[in-house]
Design goal:
Blueprint (H helix, E strand, L loop, with lengths): L11 H10 L9 E11 L16 H12 L3 E3 L5 E5 L3 E5 L5 E5 L5 H19 L4 E4 L18 H13 L3 H7 L3 E6 L3 H13 L1 H8 L4 E2 L2 E2 L5 H7 L6 E2 L11 H10 L4 E3 L5 E3 L5 H5 L10 H9 L2 E2 L1 E4 L2 E4 L7 H15 L2 H11 L4 H14 L4 E2 L2 E2 H19 L8 H9 L3 H9 L7 H8 L2
Parallel strand pairs: 10-13
Antiparallel strand pairs: 1-5, 1-6, 1-7, 2-3, 3-4, 4-5, 7-15, 8-9, 11-12, 14-15, 16-17
């Protein structure tokens, strides 16, 4: 039976109970992937929601996919399509018209690879004829912020104003970035907190291994992951790391308190629209400080989703976010790596031994260094590359023990550790400083 609560019962304690109620049985544990891709035309122009008469836009794409494959459209209001219910999972548009597939969960990563490739083949059959390519990269390599519009949804406009008022890079995050996110179930509160702690400790490693955005607005940046730089400067109140997670007594109650105190960008009003919160929290809503907005289950979920940390808790699973958008083989290697580490108690202990005891300042400096030097970043006398080799082997052992054949997906990551070159460095090595002259070759490579 679903876990239901009325609005009078909502509190930090009930939110913590919600997380506990959604723990999975070990036999029911699954994995999901969220894959975002950026659409680019052969002349370097970006896909927009409405591209005009000369080219179709993301709205036209959703309609054509719906007609061709019978996938129901998701209406964002006023007749604006913003997604689809496909055979492989939920399809949605990010604020800058990046296309996202949130897969159905599966017990095996290999089955997700098969279904995702089927979905992407279907999409490519529609878009290739128009000359649109889907590229696996963490930041749109050519577009400037001013060139990208935002889908006309109320919550996106609220978010834009929120970030503009705070003069952060949040609007770049909305319009220019893409990522791969891995969703992994937890089976108990203790395991969930350990998975959260381990994945946050691995944030620098995530960017060292999966940084894939060296270019911005047509130029090389000083970063191998410009996307990581953007997220570090999106909003210090909601993004980054949760340092209190590393305290031994951290629990679901601690995380629920974090959710309830979080300054919100928007919430759902009693008129079923979105209201600007201007930094008010879920606790403020319950206290009646916002006219026409109450502490409902919907607003509890809005608050949970507005936690933008590098890993965050969702009811029943954790979501790992420190992965730039990738080419196809590397995205599945990323999913296999995180699954292998986080679904294995010995692998989690290895992470704690190697990276879990860093002071907050050292952890932040390591994260910053990983964005520019990748696996060459150092922890004491060891490089991240050396530690990555240990973790890769632990992930392989974990995957082999599952007896599903998923360890084969780690092969692209083995090359990264062997050469010491992450995807961004491979891009730079392959195309150099004259990459714009080989733009079509770059797009061909990134679309693989």
């Amino acid at each position: 039976m679903p876990f239901t609560r009325n609005r009078q019962e909502l509190s930090p304690a009930s939110t913590a109970a919600f997380f506990r109620k959604t723990c999975r049985e070990p036999s029911q544990r699954r994995v999901g992937i969220e894959i975002e891709r950026i659409g680019l035309w052969s002349d370097g122009a970006s896909l927009h929601y409405n591209n005009g008469e000369a080219r179709f836009g993301a709205a036209d794409l959703l309609k054509e996919l719906s007609v061709r494959y019978g996938w129901p459209l998701v209406d964002g209001g006023l007749g604006r399509p913003v997604g689809l219910a496909s055979c492989c999972g939920k399809v949605s548009l990010e604020p800058g018209s990046q296309l996202e597939l949130s897969t159905e969960t599966a017990s095996s990563l290999l089955s997700l690879v098969t279904s995702t490739r089927c979905f992407e083949k279907d999409v490519n059959e529609v878009t290739a004829a128009h000359g649109l390519r889907w590229v696996g990269i963490g930041v749109n390599p050519l577009a400037e912020l001013s060139q990208m519009d935002v889908i006309a949804l109320p919550r996106y406009h609220i978010m834009t104003k929120y970030f503009d008022d705070r003069k952060t890079l949040g609007t770049q995050m909305m319009r220019l970035t893409s990522s791969v996110q891995v969703n992994l179930d937890y089976t108990s509160e203790a395991e969930a907190i350990e998975m959260l702690r381990v994945s946050l400790a691995l944030t620098p490693m995530g960017y060292a291994l999966f940084g894939n955005s060296p270019w911005h607005a047509g130029e090389r940046t000083e970063f191998l992951s410009w996307r990581g730089h953007i997220w570090r400067h999106t909003d210090h109140l909601r993004s980054g790391l949760i340092e209190s997670v590393f305290h031994p007594e951290y629990s679901f109650d601690s995380y629920a308190e974090h959710v309830w105190k979080l300054p919100l960008m928007f919430a759902q009003s009693e008129k079923n629209g979105f209201a600007t919160m201007d930094g008010m929290s879920l606790a403020d809503i319950k206290a009646g400080k916002i006219a026409g907005v109450t502490a409902t289950k919907e607003n509890e979920m809005h608050a949970i989703r507005q936690v933008f940390t590098e890993t965050r808790l969702k009811p029943g699973y954790i979501e790992i976010r420190s992965i730039d958008g990738q080419r196809s083989p590397m995205r599945y290697a990323a999913a296999a790596f995180w699954l292998g580490i986080l679904y294995s108690a010995p692998a989690r202990r290895l992470v704690v031994d190697r990276l879990g005891s860093l002071p907050a300042g050292s952890r932040d400096l390591l994260w910053l260094e990983s964005l520019t030097t990748a696996l060459a970043a150092r922890v004491g006398t060891s490089s991240l590359r050396e530690i990555a080799g240990e973790l890769l082997e632990a992930a392989r052992v974990s995957l082999i023990s599952r007896r599903l054949g998923e360890e084969i997906l780690l092969e692209p990551l083995e090359e990264v550790v062997s050469t010491g070159l992450n995807p961004a460095q491979q891009l730079i090595q392959r195309f150099g400083d004259h990459w714009k002259e080989d733009y079509l070759a770059v797009m061909d490579y990134l679309a693989q």
